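Re-run with default settings, no changes from the original entry. Doing this only to confirm the output is reproducible before filing.
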Amino acid sequence: MDLIKTAEDLIRFRTETGNETEINKCLNYLEQNLQGSGALVEICRYDGVSPVFFASNKKTNMFDVLVIGHIDVVPATDEMFEPRYENGRIYGRGTLDMKSFAAVALNSLHYVLEHKLPLKFGVILSTDEEKGSKSTEAFLHAHPDLNAKIVLDNDVGGDITKIVARCKNPVFVKITAEGEAAHGSTPWAGRDANENLFKTWENIRQIYPAFSKDTPMPENTWIDTVHFAKIEGGEVSNVLAAHAEALLDFRLIETSSVADLCANLDKCMEKGVFYKVVSSSTPVVMQEDNPHIVAYKKFAEDILGRPLEFEYIGGATDSREFAERGATVIMHSGSGEGMHAPNEYAEVESIKQIADIQIKFLEKLAEEK
């Protein structure tokens, strides 16, 4: 398989989350890519959610290795769906997050099949990861016994010299403020829902401080954070808002529970303001001395010719579902910048290196069987 050409082909599909037409075209491409290889391919469809691509070399519920990822992307201009090269980088939407590494997953499956490695190996690619991974939830609900000893997760892009050991728990909370409308010239005749929402916001900020490029970075970044993802309130300019709401994106470290968060929010609510936890998960925490992770790290260091470090990140990944099932999750991806931004790129050499690392690791696992 031509790894970089496959990455280019995938980038050209405008698979913005929810774009069913392009997502289906991309899924068909993935299926055709594996045609004649001997892979077992299934495009799994469930009511009310986006599909999931599932391909493997064996029909089983217990895999030696699964590679997981996604093919959906965040919105971008037309130009970003035509990959371009500059200074050893491939630019475009999904180059880093994460179509280049979906191509790596396909490449690994081709290799396992072509070389008949005695491993039970599979690839799972969701199509709505950028908006909560409901498809992955539906897929795993339909496959309650599906698991793997090792899960390779390439959806943590940014720096190939670092292996991610921990990811935070993403918790989304909806805040709703109810007020009483009145003319803007007589605010004492009503209750401003916007005002009460702002007061609640200030209370929350007393517990969870704000950070930005314009504020000092905390010495320890492994802390709980929150940003206000969406705020709405009011209908017209001269009437006090009778209703306001906000969506909050909390990222909790492994020692902070959702119950702890709720206890804090209980203290912050002003009169007429309420909250609801919309969704939550669990943080992914891997022990750095895990034998599989140690072995993988050594292969990566040998190929890269330099030592690798462990890091902790605030982002979330679908691998959390398998961490809950007891799998060893190895989170490692290629180098690049601009994830979700207009200048998104991945370093071409790092894409090839991740592919080499995966293959060497798989060969070693096969030898040990």
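The chain has two domains: 3-167+283-368, 169-279. The longest helix spans residues 348-368.
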